[in-house]
């Protein structure tokens, strides 16, 4: 029996579709026949605050919580959150980071300085373990900017053991039929951006 548990942490700010994406990850793992546990911390999500969702899957998972330094994959929907949550990723883990940068209210109002050169800081923190995607541009090209989270899901799919069909079936179970085609297109664009066939 394989005791390997895979830990994925998804981080970002409210309104980026993180919780839907984590639901799709969890559903995909369930469709693959694995035990799945999921947790969410919303914070001030509706005001653009930090959001984190964690998904764990394997033969048998007892807890939904991922300890610091134990995430196999860190999925950051925004650059500053990728910097903030670096301690979650284990040594040799992969970081999937959306190219978007959202300035916190404290920065845009002048109360505190922003992060200087976040791209350089990301490269310094993650090195070769960093995969960056421009989800907004790919979502716009797919036909709907609001599908950026599915672009990210597509890129994430390239880092998991699940088949594209398992991911697509999970998407069908969570996305309204009228929005499915554009979301599937965004998903495929994310897969291509991550180098998956």
Beta-strand share of residues? 15-25%
Helix percentage range: 40-55%
Cα shape = globular
What fold name goes in the CATH topology slot? Pyruvate-ferredoxin Oxidoreductase, domain 3
Per DSSP, the total helix count is 8
Into how many domains do the coordinates divide?
1
Biggest sheet statistics: 6 strands, mixed
Can you walk me through this structure?
The chain is of the alpha/beta class and 197 residues long. It has a single domain, classed as Pyruvate-ferredoxin oxidoreductase, PFOR, domain III (Pyruvate-ferredoxin Oxidoreductase, domain 3), CATH 3.40.920. It has 8 helices and 6 strands, in the order βαβββαβααβαααα. It has a 6-stranded mixed sheet, sandwiched between helices. α1 packs parallel to α6 and α1 packs across α7. The chain is globular and about 45 Å long.
Secondary-structure blueprint of this entry?
Elements: E1 5-13, H1 18-31, E2 35-41, E3 50-58, E4 71-76, H2 79-84, E5 89-98, H3 105-108, H4 118-126, E6 130-133, H5 135-142, H6 148-157, H7 164-174, H8 177-193
Parallel strand pairs: 1-4, 4-5, 5-6
Antiparallel strand pairs: 1-3, 2-3
Which keywords apply here?
197 residues
Task: Describe, in short, the structure shown.
With 197 residues, this protein is α/β, with parallel strands linked by helices. The chain contains 8 helices and 6 strands.
């Amino acid at each position: 029996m394989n005791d390997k548990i895979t830990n994925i942490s998804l981080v970002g700010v409210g309104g980026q579709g993180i919780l839907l994406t984590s639901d799709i990850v969890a559903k995909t793992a369930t469709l693959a026949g694995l035990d799945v546990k999921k947790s969410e911390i919303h914070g001030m999500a509706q005001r653009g605050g930090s959001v984190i969702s964690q998904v764990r899957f394997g033969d048998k998972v007892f807890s939904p919580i991922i300890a610091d330094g134990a995430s196999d994959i860190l999925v950051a929907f925004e650059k500053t959150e990728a910097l903030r949550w670096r301690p979650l990723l284990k040594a040799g883990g992969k970081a999937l980071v959306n190219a978007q940068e959202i300035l916190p209210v404290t920065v845009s109002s002048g109360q505190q300085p922003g992060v200087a050169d976040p791209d350089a800081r990301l490269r310094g923190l993650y090195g070769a373990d960093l995969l960056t995607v421009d989800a907004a541009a790919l979502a716009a090209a797919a036909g709907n900017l609001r599908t950026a989270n599915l672009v990210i899901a597509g890129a994430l799919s390239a880092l998991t053991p699940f088949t594209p069909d398992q991911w697509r079936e999970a998407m069908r179970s969570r996305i309204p039929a009228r929005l499915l085609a554009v979301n599937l297109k965004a998903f495929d664009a994310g897969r291509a951006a991550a180098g998956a066939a």
